[in-house]
Structure prediction request, 125 residues.
Amino acid sequence: MSGIDYANNALQAIFGGLKVETEGIWSYVKLPNGLAIAWGGEQKITMPLNGTSGGCWYAVDRIVNIPAGLFIDSNIKIAGTATANNYCAQMFAISGGKLFVQMSASYAFTDLLTTWSAVLIGKWK
Prediction:
C-alpha cells in the first residue's frame, strides 16, 4: 500500500460521516464549513529531463487537472511531496484548474521516475 493509499484511508476514516467523491486521481470531501479537501497522486510516472535553469536540471512539468468545479476561487492551498529515482527538489503550483508538479535535480541523468502526492484545501462551490 502506498503513502497516498494510507492518506486516503485515514481521511476517509476521519470524514466517515461525509461522502467522499472521486474524480480521476483525486478523492475529495466538501465540509459543512465551506472548505473542500482533495487528495491524490501518482506512482512511478516518468518525467523527462528537459533542460537547465542556473545550475539545476529540471523535468518537464507534470500537469494534472484538479476536480472540475470543486473550488470556488484560485486561493487553493497545496501540501505535497514527491520523490524520484535520484535526489530531486519538487515544486507544486496551481493555475487555471490544473496542478503543476515540477522536479529539479543538481545533475543530469536520463528521466525521473517520480511518485508524488498532494492535498488541496480551498473553498468549495
Notes: The chain has a mean pLDDT of 83. The longest strand covers residues 35-53. Residues 3-14 form the longest helix (12 residues). The CA atoms of residues 59 and 87 lie 13 Å apart.
